[in-house]
Amino acid sequence: MAKDNIEQRRLAVLEIIKSDYKIKQLVELAKLFECSYTAIRADVVELKRKNNLTIYPSSKTKKIVLDRDNYTCQYCLNIGVKLIADHVIPAFQGGLGYTYNLVAACNTCNMKKKNKTWLPINHHILKAENKNWHNKILNSL
Length: 141
What we know:
Blueprint: H1 6-17, H2 23-32, H3 37-50, H4 59-68, E1 83-87, E2 102-106, H5 107-113, H6 123-129, H7 131-140
Antiparallel strand pairs: 1-2
Helix pairs in contact: 1-3, 2-3, 6-7
């Protein structure tokens, strides 16, 4: 059945990703359309790309984030270590690759955080960049 209704499924996925969605909704869609959660996640990634919703940041965006955060981990304040631009709300949970959802993070914090949402120290800066997304971060905790 999953292959028979792929277009209908993708329309449903698109409606969800345009809203303030939760993983639970994607799981429910997988059950409704009798497909795997992985298939739904693949639809999310494909549809975000087609609709110009950036999931993974460009190298330019990463540099902007690291500069903004003074090359300091925004979870543990570690300085002088290799840093990455980490999704505050993980891409797995619908987080986008825009500066208001990215912070500098050390590898240790990134590995501990995994697919969870942590409140970064500089969340007030993120709020200034996008108040609605900041509220989504707070609701994801």
